[in-house]
Specification:
Radius of gyration: 16 Å
Helix content: 25-40%
Distance between the termini: 31 Å
Number of helices: 4
Number of strands: 6
Length: 166
Amino acid sequence: MTGSEPLSLDEEYAMQQSWRNDNDKCTFIVLSKDPNTEVKNSDLQDTNHMIGDVNFYLNNTDNPHEAELEVMIAEQQYAGKGVATEVLHLMMQYAVNDIGVDDFVVRIKDTNNASVHIFENKLGFKETERAPVFKEVTLRRSVCDDLKASLNQWTSHANRIKYALE
């Protein structure tokens, strides 16, 4: 978990609804699924498969193209299995290619070694500061051509499904 707090399912849905038309926030709900089955739009309503979320915020007034990332895999049976890395690849690819993000930042609890490992060792982020008062570490990664190519390669297996409220 990055700096986000766990939410109930109802709180997750309420947050997602409030963000739906907000231009400076984006959230994707992370669902588990059998990799051998095709996902349908109706599957997106099945809350039994919700295992977490991944978000970004465009809240830096000095750099409107900087996204602050957060990820949470709430179901412990999926922790340490690469799910957070995969959904971060997908979210970063979306942020870069669809939104025009050119810088990423994360703020992580300084005791969350697993998240720091993902961002530093899997995604190439570098530590830029520590805030002992908040007990968090800040890591950053600028978007470059190499990162864009890597994101496109890492996410080439993914298919987009248009989400529609029914």
